[in-house]
């Protein structure tokens, strides 16, 4: 588990303490409040992720070979999912990011069984967009 970014390890520990879906859903909403702000002018079509049922905006920038992402959504639960996804990928280089298994990450958090197919597809679309931004697709 040490290969994970610190914030990803924190997410695993927090979700491990949540015994049921209601607690995990509440925790997701709390994590969603931790997202870095995305300004109104950044909520443009250029930053909109295609393939998501709800609107999701994603921005990425590279510093010293490592990627940092910001994201938001108009759906509260989705903001939580974005937050835990960003916890998993923030600070990774492009090659490591390309190898991230979204399904495995959400399974480790105990969230995969409650993710609808459309939300799961949306998280995969976000990861694909990250890979496009990093030049891996």
From TrEMBL:
<dbReference type="Pfam" id="PF02657">
    <property type="entry name" value="SufE"/>
</dbReference>
<feature type="domain" description="Fe-S metabolism associated">
    <location>
        <begin position="14"/>
        <end position="132"/>
    </location>
</feature>
<protein>
    <submittedName>
        <fullName>Fe-S metabolism protein SufE</fullName>
    </submittedName>
</protein>
<comment type="similarity">
    <text>Belongs to the SufE family.</text>
</comment>
<dbReference type="InterPro" id="IPR003808">
    <property type="entry name" value="Fe-S_metab-assoc_dom"/>
</dbReference>
């Amino acid at each position: 588990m040490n290969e994970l970014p610190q914030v990803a390890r924190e997410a695993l520990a927090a979700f491990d303490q949540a015994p049921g879906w209601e607690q995990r859903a509440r925790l997701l909403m709390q994590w969603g409040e931790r997202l870095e702000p995305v300004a109104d002018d950044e909520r443009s079509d250029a930053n909109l992720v295609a393939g998501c049922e709800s609107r999701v905006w994603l921005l990425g920038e590279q510093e010293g070979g490592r990627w940092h992402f910001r994201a938001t959504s108009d759906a509260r639960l989705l903001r939580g999912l974005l937050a835990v996804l960003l916890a998993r990928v923030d600070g990774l280089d492009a090659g490591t990011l390309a190898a991230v298994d979204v399904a495995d990450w959400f399974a480790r958090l105990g969230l995969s069984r409650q993710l609808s197919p459309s939300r799961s597809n949306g998280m995969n679309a976000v990861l694909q967009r990250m890979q496009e931004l990093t030049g891996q697709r």
